[in-house]
Structure formats: structure tokens, C-alpha cells
Automatic annotation (TrEMBL):
It comes from Columbina picui. Residues 73-234 form the EVE domain. Residues 41-52 have a biased composition (Low complexity). Specifically binds 5-hydroxymethylcytosine (5hmC), suggesting that it acts as a specific reader of 5hmC. SUPFAM superfamilies: PUA domain-like. The keyword Phosphoprotein applies. It is found in: Nucleus. GO terms for cellular component: nucleus. This is Thymocyte nuclear protein 1. The keyword 4Fe-4S does not apply. Keywords: Nucleus, Phosphoprotein. Residues 10-28, 56-65 have a biased composition (Basic and acidic residues). Its main location: nucleus.
């Protein structure tokens, strides 16, 4: 029996609490081209902390300085409320994860090249925030860890699965998944609205959340986090909710 499908990336729905956010180009429009895959795929680092060798280059106003960003944690979005997709309920909350054998499952159904490449960059033992998305109040609810690195996502070959991809071949699969295991609930629910308030403040003063992908590429259901981003958000669980 297949595992429940995770929140897909293709045509992902923006969080309901973000009506004023700049709407990103829907991932349904992502070109299905080899060039797209090459342009978004970072090299897998050999370090356990992940992506040590990845260099993100951007042109600065002063003439093209290279900025190095190290990602070693993740944010995984999933929908805690029922929603039918091609007749299949894609709901999967953190409580659903806790109910799985050994509190472990595979994270399938990702159909966006950049998100897939993030999956492929994940390293054994790395931790991620479990984020409830597309619900009344989205936000971080818990922590999971990667217990199996990327391997072919079986749902791409299942014609009954809503994430079936007729263009993918078993000899050269397009899509990957990882296995994740529940670690713990956060000490309190950390809502998107609270994280956004810090992000806006940090954009002004140069704080750790200034470039957080949750706000620059909010439609991606798999997002990398720097150590500083992860530590700051995790530290919010110790504070009283605003």
C-alpha cells in the first residue's frame, strides 16, 4: 500500500496567510528541459553539513562579487488539512508522520526541478523543520531528520497516483524522494506571521532571516536553510508568542 502523498510543488498554492506576498511564477510553468535541470542543480557536497562546496553567485551593484551561502538544514512543507487531488487526499500532517511505523516515511510527490535538486542535496542526519502549509494558520510545528538520502520516487511510475509522470523512465527517473523521521514537536507552534515579522526586520538591519527562502521562493515545498536561519527560527520556540 503506498504511503500518503506529500504536498506537491507543481502549481503549489501560496500560504493563505500571505495575500500580500509577491506571487511567484507557478511551478506548473517550470520548463521540462535538460537545461533547466542543469541550471538549478547544485553539486552535492561531501561534508555531513551539506553543500559546503556549493557557491551561489550573484551580481552585486559594485560589479559582480561572489557570495557563498552554506545550507545544512531544510524546511519541508506539507498540508495538514484534507484536499483531494485527482481523487486522492494529499493531507499529511506531523501527526500523520508520528503515526507511521517507526515515525518514518518517505517524502514523495515533489514535481519541481529546484525542489527535487534540494532533495538530492540532503545528507543523512540533517534536520528539517516540518511546516504546515496551505491551511488556516501556516507555520513550523516540529523537527524531522533525514534518515535515507535521495532515491527514485516510486509515485512517478504509478498511474493511479496524482503525481504520476508519463515522461519519466525507470532507467532514468526524473524524480527523487528521501526518508524522514520524526524528531520532536517544537515547544510551541511558530506561525508564519511571526517569522515574517522577523524577516522584514532583518531585511532592514541585516539579520539572519533577511534572505530566507520562505519569503523569496515561497511556493517551493522543499527549502534550504542556513545554520543561522535554522538556529534563529528554532530559538523562537523559547519566546512567548507575540
Amino acid at each position: 500500500m503506498p504511503w500518503p502523498s506529500r504536498k506537491r510543488d507543481k502549481g503549489a498554492i501560496a500560504d493563505k496567510k500571505e495575500p500580500d506576498a509577491k506571487v511567484a511564477k507557478t511551478e506548473e510553468e517550470t520548463p521540462d528541459k535538460e537545461e533547466e535541470e542543469k541550471s538549478t542543480k547544485p553539486p552535492a557536497g561531501s561534508s555531513k553539513s551539506g553543500w559546503k562546496n556549493w557557491k551561489k553567485t550573484k551580481e552585486s551593484d559594485s560589479g559582480g562579487e561572489e557570495s557563498k551561502i552554506t545550507y545544512c538544514h531544510w524546511l519541508l512543507k506539507s498540508e495538514p488539512e484534507s484536499r483531494l487531488e485527482k481523487g486522492v487526499d494529499v493531507k499529511f500532517s506531523i501527526d500523520d508522520l508520528k503515526a507511521q511505523p517507526n515515525q518514518t516515511t518517505h517524502w514523495d510527490g515533489v514535481r519541481n526541478y529546484q525542489a527535487r535538486n534540494f532533495l538530492r542535496a540532503m545528507k543523512l542526519g540533517q534536520q528539517a523543520f516540518f511546516y504546515h502549509s496551505n491551511c488556516k494558520e501556516p507555520g513550523v510545528v516540529g523537527i524531522v531528520k533525514i534518515v535515507k538520502e535521495a532515491y527514485p520516487d516510486h509515485t512517478q511510475f504509478d498511474q493511479k497516483d496524482p503525481h504520476y509522470d508519463s515522461t519519466s523512465r525507470k532507467e532514468n527517473p526524473k524524480w527523487s524522494m528521501v526518508d524522514v523521521q520524526f524528531v520532536r514537536m517544537t515547544k510551541r507552534f511558530i506561525p508564519l506571521s511571526e517569522i515574517k515579522a522577523h524577516h522584514l526586520a532583518h531585511k532592514a538591519d541585516g539579520g539572519p532571516l533577511k534572505n530566507m527562502m520562505l519569503f523569496t521562493r515561497q511556493r517551493l515545498s522543499i527549502q534550504p536553510l542556513t545554520q543561522e536561519e535554522f538556529d534563529f527560527v528554532l530559538g523562537l520556540e523559547e519566546e512567548k508568542p507575540h
